[in-house]
Amino acid sequence: MSSANAFHDALTSRDAASSAVDMAELRRYRQGEGAPEAALESVEREARRLVLTWADGERGEFPLMWLRDHCACSDCRHPMTRERLYKLLEDPLWDRLAGEDALAHIDFDARSLTLTWADDHRSRFDAGWLHQRRPGQDLPSLLPTPTPWPEGFFPERVEHADFVGEGDGRSRWVTALLRDGLALLDNGPCALEEVSRVAESLGPMRSTNFGGRFDVRSIPNPNNAAYTAIGLELHTDLPNWRQPPDIQLLYCLENDAEGGESSFTDGFAAAEVLRAEDPAAFRVLTQTPIDFRFQDDGHDIAVREPVIDLDASGRPREIRFNNWIRDTLSLPAEQIEAWYDAYRTFWQILRRPDRRVELTLAPGQMVAFDNRRVLHGRNAFDPNTGKRHLQGTYLDLDMLQSHLRVLSR
Ligand code: OGA
Ligand code: ZN
Ligand code: ZN
To answer: How many angstroms separate the CA atoms of 381 and 261, rounded?
Structure first.
């Protein structure tokens, strides 16, 4: 066993990361959290599991099955893709892994644990990696926690030049968007398709029945309220899809018509206010699926879902709110008035000014928001007084999360 000092020296030397056992992950696990106090001190064998302790006093119980499943050797993980090749469920050792005699030999030092299995297969584990992944311990998230808007909230603004530059503008912007569900990009070029360039620097654009990238301006024969000059009350886009698009980008190219100011509110914060102020209304909106539907010559896209969808732990996961494409309300007669009452109460909370962000988009400015959390709207504008032209697209949240994880490597 190497001494704790030697371990510490290795960690503080420049090639500390490369001297770690490669666990086939790109996330850092030797430096930062888990090191150097993650020097392995002891390994004890118990029935069907190993009990490890580290220099910081932490203790972890690892079932043998888990350890065998996480072998990172090049037979068990593809050395290029890092994907798992090993099939635990087909391993002839399965019965012995569930028993006690699957291990032939245990070897460890401060930095690593090496197990030789009964079939002579050998697995090496990095001590810091094991420390971070000890069962029952949540791995620290690399992503910001979505945070309800406080009263008077105003979104983070990042300069377009900082976003496309080498600095931290991009990660500041993505972090704010994931945390607040709303972020602005300021002073970009007034160039057609800049929204597509911004979007594609983050991930593939999510296409819908309105295309991969859409123009918001008033047009003759519109198939959608957004393509008129009328005001758009706060809403979420495409609640008639089983999975509405996550992130919406709206890039302003022209906005000199009278009116057309934008507004936003945090639907999750509003749902929490509803829960606190009117629990019965909250129950109605979370437990009553209703129909949403968009129809034009080529499409008829419909779902039946509640206005407020909760996750398994009871927190809001999704808001569907769009009066234009709310379909015929199909409920038993005795539920109808209670539903409208609850819907109206929620609407009044959504419209409160204390958490409502109002702004006029400037040419070259882009707003991005989590369409499944934050509602957006605009005032009516007068197309006879000037032009208003936005270009928009959607992105999957997965791409923003991925982006932050990669940036944090
Ligand atoms: C939309 C929309 C807002 C705006 O296109 O879905 O809500 O400011 N547009 O025009
Ligand atoms: Zn292996
Ligand atoms: Zn919209």
So the answer is: 8
Are 313 and 203 within one domain?
yes
Question: Tokens 């206005």 sit at which residue?
Answer: 307
- Ligand lying closest to the C-alpha of residue 124: 2
Q: Residue 383 burial by CB count (10 A; 0-12/13-18/19+): exposed, middle or buried?
A: middle
Give whole-number Cα distances, 236 to 3, 147, 167, 320, in Å.
59, 19, 33, 6
**Per-residue model confidence (pLDDT) at position 35:** 62
Element (H, E) at 84: none
Question: Is residue 16 pLDDT above 50, yes or no?
Answer: no
Clarify whether residues 16 and 78 are in a common domain.
Answer: yes
The answer to whether residues 378 and 264 belong to one domain is: yes
Question: What is the rounded average pLDDT of the residues 114-128?
Answer: 96
Cα separations in angstroms, 274 against 149, 286, 336: 15, 11, 19
- Cα separation of 124 and 107, whole Å? 9
Average pLDDT over residues 129-151: 92
Query: Which ligand is located closest to the Cα atom of residue 88?
Result: 2
Does the pLDDT value for residue 7 go beyond 80? no
Compute CA distances 352 → 146, 191, 233, 260, 348, whole Å.
21, 35, 13, 19, 6
Look up the domain containing 176 and give its range.
156-408
Global pTM reads 0.90
**What integer best gives the mean pLDDT of the chain?**
92
Nearest of 125, 143, 167, 102 to residue 23 by alpha carbon: 125
Do residues 195 and 113 share a domain?
no
Q: Residues of 263-301 as b/e, b for ≥16 C-beta within 10 angstroms?
A: bbbbbbbbbbbbbeebeebbebbbebebbbbbeeeeeeb
Ligand 1 neighbour 226 (Cβ under 6 A): yes
Nearest CA to ligand 1 atom 2: 226
Q: What separation in Å is there between the alpha carbon of 246 and the centre of ligand 3?
A: 12
Distance 241 CA to ligand 3 centre (A): 14
Number of H helices, E strands in the chain: 12, 22
Residue 344 and residue 198 share a domain: yes
